[in-house]
Amino acid sequence: MALVDPLDKAADCERAIRLTFDPLQREMLNNIREFWIALAQESRFLSEDALAGEIETIGRLQDRLTAQCAKKVH
């Protein structure tokens, strides 16, 4: 199973942080970025299934935030 690289996802958050002017969105993106970084550091201690579950959970948070941001723009 090909898993998402948490550091790539953290970099996506970093890019999004640079593009938003909303302080609340910046804070939430920063928190999600920190989740990705923590997961990258802990990933070697997790089973593939546990890692996949964590990736899915954090990914859902990021997707939800991204969807909320897109609604505010339109």
Question: What is shown here, in short?
Answer:
The protein has 74 residues and is mainly alpha-helical. The protein contains three helices and no strands.
What would you say this structure looks like, in words?
- The chain is mostly helical and 74 residues long.
- The chain has one domain (6-73).
- Helices cover 81% and strands 0% of the residues.
- The chain is built from three helices and no strands.
- It is elongated and about 40 Å long.
- The model has no long low-confidence stretch (mean pLDDT 90).
Please write out the topology.
Layout: H1 6-19, H2 23-42, H3 48-73
User: SS-based structural class?
Assistant: mainly alpha
What is the straight-line distance between the termini?
A: 36 Å
Instruction: Compute the average pLDDT.
Output: 90
Helical content stands at over 70%
Rg on CA atoms, Å: 13 Å
Main sheet makeup: none
Strand composition percent? under 5%
Q: Label the overall shape.
A: elongated
> How many discrete structural domains?
1
Low-confidence stretches: none
Number of helices: 3
Which terms would index this structure?
mainly alpha, elongated, 3 helices, 0% strand, 74 residues, 81% helix
